[in-house]
């Protein structure tokens, strides 16, 4: 009959083997890697106003675009006061499937 100490040692050994990489026991299915990071795009047009988190822009071809604004580091929505209504601005954004494009930077247009 095996001693309790020996049974515990075998259990610890088996558990350790299960956690070793490459044994097949510890391998978990991995989520597929994203095919590519969000591609940044840039447009220039006339600032047509904003709400709390959305910016409205009229492009030179008269097309209207609405953006959700998520500028990294802007915790106080300072962008609200930095750009005058009807001024020309350049917006850097990326598309989000099924949602409005997300603006990540806004600058005065040349």
Topology:
Elements lengths: L3 H16 L21 E10 L3 E6 L4 E6 L9 H4 L5 E7 L7 E7 L2
Percent helix: 10-25%
Beta-strand share of residues: 25-35%
Order of helices and strands: HEEEHEE
Oligomerization state: single chain
CATH superfamily annotation of the largest domain: Nucleic acid-binding proteins
Sheet having the most strands? 5 strands, mixed, barrel
Overall 3D shape: globular
The count of strands amounts to: 5
Please, what is the average pLDDT?
A: 79
Task: Please tally the helical runs, counting DSSP H or I stretches of 4 or more residues.
Answer: 2
Number of folding domains? Answer: 2
- Would you identify the CATH architecture of the largest domain? Beta Barrel
Query: Uncertain segments of ≥5 residues (pLDDT<50)?
Result: 10-14, 23-36
Provide a brief overview of the structure:
It is built from two helices and five strands, in the order H-E-E-E-H-E-E.
């Amino acid at each position: 009959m095996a001693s309790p100490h020996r049974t515990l040692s075998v259990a610890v050994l088996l558990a350790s083997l299960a956690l070793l990489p490459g044994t097949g026991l510890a391998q978990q299915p991995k989520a597929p890697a994203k095919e590519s990071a969000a591609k940044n795009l840039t447009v220039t047009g006339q600032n047509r106003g904003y709400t709390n988190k959305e910016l409205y822009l009229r492009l030179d071809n008269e097309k209207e675009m609405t953006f959700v604004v998520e500028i990294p580091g802007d915790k106080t929505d300072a962008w609200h006061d930095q750009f005058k209504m009807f001024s020309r601005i350049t917006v850097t954004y990326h598309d989000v499937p099924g949602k409005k494009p997300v603006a990540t930077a806004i600058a005065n247009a040349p």
